[in-house]
Amino acid sequence: MKNKPIQLSDHFTYRKLFRFCLSPIIMMVFTSIYGVVDGLFVSNFVGKIPFAAINLVMPFIMILGGVGFMVGTGGSALVAKTLGEGKREKANQYFTMMVKLTVILGLILSTLGIVLMRPISYLLGATDAMIKDCVVYGRVIFFFNIAFMLQNVFQTFLTTAQKPKLGLAATVAAGLTNMTLDALFIAVFKWGVAGAAMATGISQCIGGILPLIYFIRPNGSLLRLTKSGMEGKILIKACINGSSELMTNISSSLVSILYNFQLLRFAGENGVAAYGTLMYIQFIFISVFIGYTIGTAPVIGYNYGANNLPELKNMLQKSYFIMLGAGMIMMLLAWCLAAPLSKIFVGYDARLFEMTTHAFKLFSFAFLFSGINIFTSSFFTALNNGGVSAAISFLRTLVFQMLSVLILPVFLGLNGIWWSITVAEVFAVIISLAFLIGNRKKYHYF
Questions:
Q1: Which residues contact 146 (CB under 8 A, 6 or more apart)?
Q2: Angle at CA 30, nearest 5°, toward 257 and 190?
Q3: What per-residue confidence (pLDDT) applies to 3?
Q4: Where are the alpha helices (DSSP H) in 66-144?
Q5: Where are the domains of the chain?
Q6: Of 308, 264, 256, whose CA–CA distance to 283 is shortest?
Q7: Is the pLDDT of residue 1 over 50?
Q8: What is the Cα Rg of the chain in Å?
Q9: Average predicted confidence (pLDDT) for the chain
Q10: For residue 167, how many C-alpha atoms fall within 13 Å in the half-sphere facing its CB?
Q11: What are the start-end ranges of the H helices in 306-399?
């Protein structure tokens, strides 16, 4: 009984929630760690200018690659709701449509990324010293963009299919591949940023192609790829529902561009390198929250489709308590580990190390609030309310952060840039709670 597989229709205690969400949480943490390895190897073996170059173009890469998150989260919420309604064959058809859409969009966006990489790099503020590395890294990454988008899609759908451990296995395989190839291509072969990009791309193929093969073949999960047309209404509905995740990627990327412009102005290339370190480390911390939402979203969507209001209320209450507790732990960990984590990336430069450590201590307070905002946005996506979810993400990741990073440095100088994200998260919590209270009568979750 202890090892009985957990079903989406189960009543979730804290213990069962932890068991069900553990695999997607580890999956996302592992994804973030192996994503960080690129920066770690480039910073230590190639230099801080190439490291800054990667960080400069990363926002553009994430905007195009983030379309996979949109299709995955929006599509999986729709599929989970359809499963909750007892329409399994229809759910498989919707799932197949999402995979086809991802491949088509991936082909288009990959071509655009490769062609536009040089002008976009200059537009982002690349200096003459950085431009070559920006273009090389970006073009190699976009060559593998379809696999990256599929990996993002399957990360959410494997949980919906009640196979979160399979998603974890695919991610671990991809991560180990990336780490091994980073060491080989960068440290041994000395291929620089091209080696980093190739290592990432090859690992993304493993993370994207292995689940594709699993779903094509007969399997024991709730989902399987089947014959299906392309229904425009369904695809648009899924994309609108997942627009919050795309909005998060686009907004975060645009804000990162603005951060880089401000940091080049206030602190030069050291500022961009320090911010890059913060973003890499932040992704590891935030991945815990994202992994939790990947685990809970199918449960919420299923119970919404089944009209199981008591379980919907149960999931909301427990999740808010977990997000608040996890946020406090994250904040304390980030503060205490600011120096050792910064040293791993930029310990070779005393001035840069001091700047990064100081920045990360100020930055750490944001984790207290970010989990609540990430879950609330995901909660409304799971309820198939993409409008509210997108509004929360848009305000949190674009409006509040943009205003903060433009206004606070006027009064606080460089420290104002480091405080910006915390101020933005505080305002986002207010908005999240307002939307939650405002929609309580519609969904009856409390």
A1: 102, 103, 106, 107, 110, 208
A2: 70
A3: 61
A4: 67-84, 88-123, 131-143
A5: 14-443
A6: 256
A7: no
A8: 21
A9: 87
A10: 30
A11: 309-336, 338-346, 350-363, 367-382, 386-394
**CB-based contact 360:279 (threshold 8 Å):** no
d(CA 98, CA 240): 13
Arithmetic mean of pLDDT, 326-340: 92
pLDDT at 255: 81
AA letter at 89 = E
- In this predicted model, what pLDDT tens digit does every residue of 181-236 receive, in sequence order? 999 999 999 999 999 999 999 999 998 999 999 999 888 888 999 998 899 888 89
Give residue-wise pLDDT tens across range 231-273. 988 889 888 877 766 777 777 777 877 887 888 777 777 777 7
Mean local confidence (pLDDT), 281-306? 89
State which amino acid sits at residue 29: V
- Asked whether residue 313 carries a pLDDT value surpassing 60, the answer given is yes
- The angle subtended at Cα 127 by Cα 59 and Cα 344, nearest 5°, is 60
- Categorise residue 11: left if φ over 0, alpha if ψ from -120 to 50, beta otherwise: beta
Place of tokens 């695999």: 23
Rounded CA-CA distance 285/46 in Å is 26
pLDDT per position as a tens digit, 100-114? 999 999 999 999 999
Q: What is the pLDDT of residue 244?
A: 67
Task: Tell me which amino acid residue 322 is.
Answer: I
* Residues 405/258, Cβ–Cβ less than 8 Å: yes
Which of 238, 257, 265 lies closest to 398 in space, CA to CA? Answer: 257
| The two structure tokens encoding residue 422 | 């915390």
Torsions phi, psi for 268 (to 5 deg) = 70, -160
How far apart are the two ends of the chain, measured CA to CA in Å? 31
Nearest CA-CA partner of 162 in 102, 224, 103: 224
Beta strands in 17-158 (DSSP E): none
Both tokens assigned to 292:
């939790």
Residue 362: CB atoms within 10 A of its CB come to 20
- The angle subtended at Cα 248 by Cα 242 and Cα 252, nearest 5°, is 160
Instruction: Find the mean pLDDT for residues 63-69.
Output: 76
- In the prediction, which pLDDT does 29 show? 84
| The token pair that represents 1 in the structure block | 């009984």
